[in-house]
Fold each of these.
Amino acid sequence: MDTRHLLDTNVVLFILVEHDVRRRVQDILEDYNNVFYVSMISVVEMMHLVRAGKFRKKWKSPDEIMPALAEANFILLPIKPEHLDMYARLQPVDGHNDPFDHIIISQAITERMTLISSDRKFKEYAKQKLTLIFNER
């Protein structure tokens, strides 16, 4: 049976740009029983970063991101109404006000996917049924 994982934006960038994830996450990535999803909100974030001049060595324009995700065999996860229902109920933890992160967390909870992230604040959402694999940085 395949195990589904949702990759946070930072982890997608670590994989595609820096080629730098911790051994535990690398083992998960190399396991053929795992399937990896990327939220459409992460795509928006990455396009924004490219437009802002980040990652110029990797991408010259935002339209290069979608082919890179396809080449990595990541599946795009659209934002569905049920994700927004969860987003509306999600209780943000103190000091964590990023709406993009809240959408990604809501998608992972709703879809019952394990989220892989390097964001320390995500650990605090376990009480709200988030399953997390932390990529220690």
Note: The longest strand covers residues 34-39.
Amino acid sequence: MTIDIPPELEADFAALARAEGVSPQDYVRGMLEREVKMKLPKGQPLKSFYGALAKHGPAPSAEEIDENRAEMFRNFARGDE
């Protein structure tokens, strides 16, 4: 595959490649490989987070939360005491 690029862009790639210590061709190839790898799907599709905590059972009800909260804070000192 051959790609025509403007001379200014070629000079920019050459300068970046020199800074990395590689040839301009290797620099551009590496850049293209990273870009393509980011765009292609990777093996297993990601699982949705929905249901990730299902193994822990149903969430507590609002009443259970209120009861637990009242129990936890029952022995805390109040500001007026």
Note: Residues 7-39 form one domain.
Amino acid sequence: MGSRKHNKLFNWLKNLFSSNPETVCEITQAKQLIVAIDRGGVPLNPAKVNDIARNLGLEVSRKAPVEETITRIRKALERTK
């Protein structure tokens, strides 16, 4: 029942204390963000969303609404297909 949560928590802790944390490419991060949002998740950290967008090569203002940034990330992912 809660094994997925435990696995995610374990992996997060392992990466936190590991000398070789798993690196996730910027496209994979963006895809994971969009999948989470599509499943009903709400991004709680606008700075993280902006960071993902910047890693994709987008220019993002700190004052830009998160919804706008997410739309731009979606469009950037469409271009990568």
Note: Residues 3-17 form the longest helix (15 residues).
